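Here comes an entry:

___
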Amino acid sequence: MPAKNFLSSMQKKRLQKALREGSCSHFRERVLMLLLLNDGKTYSEISQFIGCSYRTVAYWCVHGDADQLDSLRDQREHGNFRKATKEYIQLLIEATKKSPNQLGYERSNWSGERLANYLAKLTGIQLSGTQVRRILKQKNISLPRSRLKLDNQVNHTSNKLHIHVSQ
């Protein structure tokens, strides 16, 4: 039987806060393992409750340090940017701050494909527009929608309203 209440109140509060606010599901799962172990649950009970293997619980309960929350993290949290290096991502972020007009493009807004092509010329790393948009989404950067698309949606909606009213 594991030692019950081995965590200090400060460690417990920090783990509870990490459980509530953590963005990575694997990290939250590992925090929960430590909290359940602190409540006196066995590795078997924890593995059945969480739905993972006994070995996973045993590993993280031994290697996870309540004082060092980073010990519960791994590289999955950072995403799978094999081609996109840190320098590529930095150039991507800098490019989104500039208008395509400033960089010699005729368009006024960036698209994922346009950014991917621009960065391929700069870095030689070829990504799809979807991959570029996914990286930007993870960095909480959104590309502005095209004004033409927005105008068409507004006109289309107002036409529908006009047709319904006139009938």
Q: What stands out?
A: Residues 86-144 form one domain. The CA atoms of residues 34 and 61 lie 6 Å apart. The mean pLDDT is 83. The first helix runs from residue 9 to 21.
